[in-house]
Amino acid sequence: RHADFDALGHVNNAIAWAVFEEEVVRAVPDAEVVEAEVEYRVAIESGSDVTVRTAVDGRTVSCWLVDRSGTSQASARVRIRPSGP
Predict the structure, then answer these.
(1) Which of 51, 74, 79, 83 has the most CB atoms around it within 10 Å of its CB?
(2) Residue 85: its pLDDT value, please?
(3) Residues 15-55 pLDDT 10s
């Protein structure tokens, strides 16, 4: 979508955040997000080949958008609270 890119043709930061939100739900379906920190390290260019990597450690979900060389383009650290009693 045209709205997914900024004026310089980079992926909009909101799109990276949407990827992280989806990844948290995939990794821990019943989690409630308590706090999140996103770091945009490098502009993600239109057409870039990026992969999502995720690690769950207790109540923290860490996600990275990495390029083919393994360089982190953006990252998120999300503190969660599992749902339920």
Answers:
(1) 74
(2) 60
(3) 899 999 999 999 999 889 999 999 999 888 888 899 999 99
Burial of 23 (0-12, 13-18, 19+ CB in 10 A): buried
Q: Could you tell me the CA-to-CA distances from 24 to 11, 69, 71, 82 in Å, in that order? A: 20, 24, 21, 12
- Other beta carbons within 10 Å of 48: 14
Nearest residue to 52 via CA among 35, 31, 76, 80? 76
Distance CA 77, CA 64 (A): 9
Residue 41 near residue 73 (C-beta atoms within 8 A): yes
